[in-house]
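Re: beginner question about structure tokens

> Can someone show what the tokenized structure looks like for a real chain? I only ever see the sequence side.

Sure, here's an example I had lying around. Input first:
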Amino acid sequence: MHIKRADILKQVQSRKDEILQWTKKLIACPTENKPPDGYEAQGQQFLRKECEKIGLAVDMFDPQQVPDIKNHPWWLEGRNYPKDRQNLVATWKGGDHAKSLLFSGHMDVAPSSPGKWKMVDPFGPQIKEGKLYGRGSADLKGGLAAAFWALKMIKEMGFQPAGNIIFESVVDEEFAGGNGTLAARLKGYNTDLAILVEPTRMQVCTACMGAFLGEILLTGTSGMPYMGFDIPNPIYGAATVIDLFKKWGKQWAQTNHHALFEEKGKELKVLLWDINSKTEGEFTQMGTPLITKLSWIVWCYPGTDENTFKQEFLDFWEKKAAAEDLKPFQLEHRFTYHYVRPWETDQNHPAVTEVVDAYKDYTGQTPKVTGAPFSCDMAVYGAIGNMPILILGPRGGNLHAPDEWVLAEDILSLTGIFMNLLSRWTS
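And the corresponding structure tokens:
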């Protein structure tokens, strides 16, 4: 049973205000992730009620309760999961006569601080000049809303899928998480095609970057330089490290290439995101500090080997440690969190063609098939769930920053595209 494009378009247009008002309610749920804790409960309970209203079978579960998950090499230690921090998986039973489909997103959002919000309160979403503002609007509640409404409306239109459809909202994706996604895959919620609704600017992404995270610790001698005796300051040493990181980043970008990431803005980058001169619980005197720690992220393309990267990275710093400004300090390198693995789905897979055709049929435009210039859980779906996984989400801006926004029109367009895909893929 196929639903005609004209009928889908009419349904989306007639209910666009309802869709956007519902999306505002979802964004208004303060579901911040502040490791080791996360506060997704209100958003997940909101979705649970909405899924049950339309007759979906809902399973909610704590990631750490999945058997043997803590022994899995992709499990990230150190996160807390109280009883109300649960994954939500909603199933629409079709059958075994057609291909199954998964729509997936994460409920957690980046913290609303630091920085001052000027357009709206973080959890007081508003639409201004076509942009829906609010924390998590683009990353990724706009996409999550489109997926839910695609299921809701096509179900209300009387569509009967011949294959199973799953809609899921996982916890703990931000801050290099992944445990929620891993739990859903290990529990068996895997399908013939998965669509991850991260914000891709309406591009169909068959690949994403990976990320390495770590720290460089400079240790010297603390104290106050009385009586003319100089004490090398690790903060000054950190200035040298920062300069070297810029050189490393330039070298890393120039020596790594991938065909799906040739578009401007998709080159590899490095990020220094924290600098600190005291250990946890330490009182810092007014003097030369003992240590200075810098935290970093390095992104990578699909095909990057973890061990090869680490060796290349450490070799670079071993050579640079002999630099005059770094000689007085002991340098220690720590790889933190875990390797957020890149992923690439074969562009020749029939699922890619089906998604592109569903997009083109509904919008009249051929989407760009490319790579997503960010790291996410894509590899968990592909490697652990053994699914062809694509990323498709809206345009937006200020992700992880004040005044985050998503284009309201893209939420509506995605709803129609997803309805079209549901009709074609699961009939």
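Each token stands for a local structural state, so reading them left to right follows the chain. The chain has a mean pLDDT of 95.
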